Structures are given as structure tokens and as C-alpha cells.
């Protein structure tokens, strides 16, 4: 084989490769096919570049030809795309363009959705609707916020576990009412006898002719519902915080325990949720008008209503929220008074549980 023949063969092969490359590039850029142009406006193209793919139904059917900035600061970025004419059958005036990416950090491309059969066909130069692209930086920021929230939740769980461990240790040592009940049978017998008497008195009170309507109208099935979280008196130590409310401002009617404006207790709830405390006592008294038996039950019902709202709407240990219903109390005005008195863990020791409704009025120390 002569040198001239080999040189000619090399030139022919090179030209063949060049022609094949031109046809491949031209086919990808739709240079040898009939196309039409469609535009879409975006607030942000999220890194889309000229020459990017345009896909219809997941297939490469066009190319991004031009990305043009707006003339005004309140305008949008215009993306011009050349599409193959074969797409005219599925793309309509109501088609929507969206900027997507290959994976999380892959190349950007434009995906155009199918239109409806009833919509008009696209014409050369038409502008279709668009949807905002997903911003990866916003996703990362939201992921960081979720992680922070998760860390906060783990911290709260650790704190709760520590509190439960401390309570368990005190119970094992016989400290507190529960510890005494478990370790001292005589205390259990006394408490059991008192509980039996409380249940009997509460049932009698429920069916009392004077108070029957009060229970029926307020949804309480048993008087024990009003006193199951009650305490005899407040600790002698100085409270961390005290929230005071006028009864006329927080209850719907003078003779009801239904809350009128629950948001009134938002500040107290936020404080209990954000601070460690040993005891939060809801202390309620009513004015001097009315019948003594009903006023006692009313004050207990109001204290229970406030306690239930705090327990249901804020993240806190509701076993530390107690109630005191004082009944009639001088100096509280016609509408009565409500207080949320908060004590630290070191100064939250309280007296024994109160007796049944109808016993002498409770007094704070």
C-alpha cells in the first residue's frame, strides 16, 4: 500500500467522522429538523443555561436557545426554546414549563407538560405558563431548621427522663405521698379510707338538688373531676412568678366555668413551657354573692378549666399543675379572681389533697 493511498484513506476517514459529528450535533440542536419557538417567563432560572435540554413527556424534544434578562427590576427572565414540530400535537396553550435538574445537583433542563385536548395549539413565538423552580438553598435551610427542632426535642426528652429518674428515686426512698403509699401500709390505708369517703361525698354532692343543674350544664359527670388535681394550700416559700386575672375578663358568664378568651393565658403557658418549675397552682375564688355550695363548686370548676387549657395546649409536665378552689372570698369583687402561682422545684412542697367539695373553704398560707 503506497503512502499516497494511506494518506487519502486517512483524509476520507477524518471527513467521515467530522460529517457524523456535524449530523449528531445538528440533530441534537434540531438544526436539520423543522422547529418552532416557544417562550416562558421565570422569576429565577436556577442555573439554567443556553443549550439545555427541553423535554416533553421525558423525551428530548427541543433546546433552550436564549435566556434574556428583563428590562425592568420587576420583570421576569425570558427563556426561549426551539421545539420539534412533532410536539404540536401534545403541547397546547395551557401547557406549563418547569425547570428541573438531573438529581439533586445535576444539569438543569426544562420540562413542558402536555396540554388539554380542548386548548388551542401553540404558534411560533407563543408564551406559555411556568412554575417556579425548586431552590436547593431553601431546601438546605429547611433541613437545618428540622435538625434544630429535632435536637430541641431530644433535649426535652432528656430533661423529662431526668425528672422521671429523680421522681422514681424519691419514691423508692419513701419520700412524698406516692413514696409513703408504696413503702408505708398505714399511710395507704388512711389515704384509701379518705378516698372512699371523698367518692361517697362527691356522689352525694353531684345529686344534691341545689347543684344538679351546675354539673349538668358544665359537662362534669363526677365531682371528683373538679378535685382530682386539688391541693390543700400553697407552699410557704416565695413563688417564682404570679399571674393574676379578673374573673369577669376570663369567664363567659358569672355562674359558669367556661373560658371566654383562652388566649388570656398564653403568657402564663409560654412561661411554664419555657421555664423549669416544681409547682404551678391555679387558685380561683368567686365573689360574695350567691349560694355557698354552688360557689365552691364553681371555683373548683373554673380552676379545673384553666388547668385543662394549660395541660392541653402547652408542652409541660401537667402533673405539676394543681388547683385550689377557694369558693367565696372577701375582696375579690363580684366577678371573682384567678391566679396562676408558680414555684421552683426546691420550694414546691404542698399539703395533702383537699377534702370533697362542700368542706370548709381552702385558705392560702
Descriptive account of the structure:
There is one protein chain. The chain has 365 residues and is an alpha/beta fold. The chain folds into three domains: 33-134; 135-168; 209-347, 2-Layer Sandwich (60s Ribosomal Protein L30, Chain: A). The protein is built from nine helices and eleven strands. The protein has helices at 3-28, 136-172, 176-183, 185-206, 212-218, 224-227, 247-250, 266-274, 292-313, and strands at 35-42, 53-56, 59-68, 77-84, 96-101, 108-112, 126-131, 241-246, 279-286, 321-328, 337-343. The strands form two sheets. A seven-stranded mixed β-barrel has the order 1-4-3-2-6-5-7. β9, α9 (292-313) and β10 form a beta-alpha-beta unit. α3 (176-183) crosses α4 (185-206). The longest helix is centred in the middle third of the chain and has 37 residues, at 136-172.
Task: Quickly describe the structure.
This protein has 365 residues and is of the alpha/beta class. Helix content is 38%, strand content 21%. A hairpin with an 8-residue loop joins strand 3 (59-68) and strand 4 (77-84).
Amino acid at each position: 500500500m503506497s503512502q499516497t493511498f494511506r494518506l487519502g484513506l486517512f483524509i476520507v476517514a477524518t471527513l467521515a467522522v467530522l460529517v457524523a459529528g456535524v449530523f449528531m450535533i445538528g440533530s441534537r440542536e434540531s438544526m436539520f429538523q423543522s422547529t418552532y419557538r416557544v417562550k416562558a417567563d421565570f422569576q429565577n432560572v436556577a442555573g439554567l443555561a443556553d443549550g439545555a435540554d427541553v423535554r416533553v413527556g421525558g423525551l428530548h424534544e427541543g433546546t433552550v436557545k436564549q435566556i434574556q434578562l428583563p428590562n425592568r427590576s420587576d420583570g421576569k427572565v425570558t427563556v426561549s426554546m426551539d421545539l420539534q414540530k412533532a410536539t404540536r400535537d401534545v403541547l397546547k396553550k395551557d401547557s406549563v414549563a418547569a425547570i428541573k435538574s438531573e438529581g439533586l445537583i445535576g444539569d438543569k433542563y426544562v420540562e413542558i407538560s402536555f396540554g388539554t385536548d380542548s386548548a388551542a395549539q401553540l404558534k411560533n413565538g407563543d408564551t406559555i405558563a411556568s412554575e417556579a423552580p425548586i431552590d436547593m438553598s431553601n431546601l438546605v435551610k429547611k433541613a437545618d431548621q428540622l435538625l434544630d427542632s429535632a435536637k430541641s426535642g431530644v433535649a426535652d426528652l432528656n430533661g423529662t427522663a431526668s425528672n422521671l429518674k429523680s421522681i422514681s428515686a424519691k419514691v423508692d426512698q419513701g419520700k412524698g405521698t406516692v413514696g409513703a403509699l408504696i413503702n408505708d401500709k398505714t399511710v395507704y390505708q388512711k389515704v384509701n379510707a379518705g378516698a372512699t369517703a371523698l367518692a361517697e361525698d362527691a356522689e352525694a354532692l353531684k345529686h344534691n338538688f341545689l347543684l344538679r343543674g351546675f354539673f349538668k350544664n358544665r359537662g362534669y359527670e363526677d365531682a371528683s373531676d373538679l378535685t382530682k388535681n386539688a391541693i390543700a394550700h400553697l407552699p410557704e416559700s416565695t413563688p417564682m412568678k404570679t399571674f393574676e386575672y379578673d374573673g369577669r375578663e376570663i369567664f363567659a358568664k358569672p355562674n359558669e366555668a367556661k373560658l371566654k378568651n383562652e388566649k388570656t393565658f398564653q403568657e402564663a403557658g409560654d412561661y411554664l413551657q419555657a421555664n423549669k418549675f416544681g409547682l404551678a397552682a391555679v387558685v380561683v375564688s368567686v365573689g360574695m354573692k350567691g349560694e355557698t355550695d354552688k360557689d365552691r363548686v364553681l371555683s373548683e370548676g373554673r380552676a379545673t378549666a384553666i388547668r385543662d387549657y394549660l395541660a392541653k395546649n402547652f408542652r409541660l409536665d401537667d402533673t405539676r399543675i394543681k388547683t385550689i378552689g377557694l369558693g367565696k372570698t372577701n375582696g375579690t369583687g363580684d366577678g371573682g379572681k384567678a391566679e396562676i402561682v408558680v414555684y421552683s422545684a426546691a420550694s414546691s412542697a404542698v399539703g395533702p389533697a383537699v377534702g370533697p367539695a362542700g368542706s370548709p373553704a381552702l385558705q392560702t398560707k
